[in-house]
Amino acid sequence: MNVYKLLAKEEKNTFFSPFSLSTALAMVFCGSENETAKEIRLAIGYNVENITGDNIKSGFQQLLSTLEKASDNYVLNYANSLLSQKGFAVKEEYKLVLRESFRALLMEMDFVGESEKVINHINEWVKNKTNHMIPQLVDFLDPSTVMVILNAVYFKGTWSHKFNEKLTFRQNFYNKGTESSMKLVDMMHIKESFLYSEKGSFKALQLPYHGEEIAMLLLLPNSRNGLKELEKQLSADFFKDLKCEMLLTEVDVALPKFRLEYSKSMKEIFQELGIRRLFECGAELGGISDYKELMVSEVIHKAVIIVNEEGTEAAAATFVGFMRCSLTFNPEFIVDHPFAFVIYNTKCDLIIFMGKVEEL
């Protein structure tokens, strides 16, 4: 939630995958030591002092095993990979952790002599794992790069209750919550029973995907410019309480079709979260390699989402580069101004994607 709040400071469309970012960080954590490990642990949200790499490894093993269970209702694919410079000694114990706990593919490549080939390999890997939604993640590699961790996640789901295309028509959306920035957009409509809540200054609506294991939770402030105030309330407890309060209610829904593409260097965001040692020379990554000067140079995250009458298609990828040094009436849920949304697993409450729409 802290990552969202930092990204949301920029008053523009935002979309990212907490699952992708936390997986990439967890992979690094399992090779970190001392202060670096502590900073990553606290940033991920593991506030228990005695939590170990073994706890996180077993936790991710269980989580990924749950996600791997085949479903005919939706597609949710994830992939992890580690690329290392030929001749750069990555510890065998660390390789084993990545293979067993994170299902990671390990490869050695020539970063120095064939940097273009490495860049093409990274982009091709990401493109394939995200069903071509993210054709390019990186266009440059620092000459000092000796290792790269990659994570990609892809989701495609159809709504449990599809929107009728015949009921989609042009309607106003108040960009940035202002009348002066108003724009006509394709607005989808449906009247159906959904989990719904009205709480103080905002409304919440849950749109399930087929099978109802994955759902989109929409958070709509009552006032057109109320998103910033709503964002201040967001926390794990906020979502836990909200989930308990939502009731199955027949609702008149109007939701815009939209496509978001978001790309961000996460280095400064992670530093604001307290992960600083990781980006400094000699970053205490002794669990990865005996090379003392290893550090993380960059973290790049890219995500794309498409929402239409049929459902949602979304993908995200993360690059970590290492280098040396109930009501009696039908309420309305009219999404015609800035809103936030979450796509999550309703069984284990895993937030897969999260974002906000400021303008269309």
From TrEMBL:
GO terms for cellular component: extracellular space. GO terms for molecular function: serine-type endopeptidase inhibitor activity. Keywords: Glycoprotein, Protease inhibitor, Secreted, Serine protease inhibitor, Signal. Residues 1-360 form the Serpin domain. Its main location: secreted. It is found in: Secreted. It comes from the Eukaryota. Belongs to the serpin family. This is Putative serpin-like protein.
